[in-house]
Write a structure and sequence with these properties.
The chain is mostly helical and about 120 residues long. The protein is built from four helices and two strands, in the order ββαααα. Helix 3 crosses helix 4.
Length: about 120
């Protein structure tokens, strides 16, 4: 049963042009009050817990994942090279840099660094 306020319980809202009027006429709503929308099997298939299980659960706060801003200093040649490569791919250079860093962080892109050896002096 709906409890909308004193003297208004079991009423349906009817909108008029300027205000909301309340009426005792529930129309076909009487058929639905007290009847479940889903069967127990449907709730179980959808993973909806029973009221007893829900009481045992607790809410866990998970902060939303936000992007973190970083600042990187690049020389002009490197920046121009990134912009050129991004233009070939049809994307902004910052998106290209973020994508490359993402691939490296996830281990999907392996980098190989080689140490230059200087010739031995005679």
């Amino acid at each position: 049963m709906l409890d909308i306020g004193e003297g208004v319980e079991n009423s349906m809202k009817k909108k008029t042009k300027n205000r909301v009027k309340y009426t005792d006429d529930l129309g076909e709503m009487d058929d639905f009050i007290g009847s479940p929308i889903l069967t127990k099997e449907q709730e179980k298939a959808l993973g909806i817990p029973s009221p007893e299980e829900a009481k045992k659960m607790r809410m866990v706060y998970r902060p939303a994942k936000k992007d973190t801003r970083i600042n990187v200093r690049l020389d002009q040649v490197t920046l121009e090279g990134l912009k050129l490569q991004a233009a070939k791919l049809g994307m902004p250079y910052q998106t290209l840099v973020a994508s490359a860093l993402h691939l490296i962080a996830n281990g999907e892109l392996q980098l190989g660094f080689f140490k230059k050896t200087m010739p031995k002096r005679a």
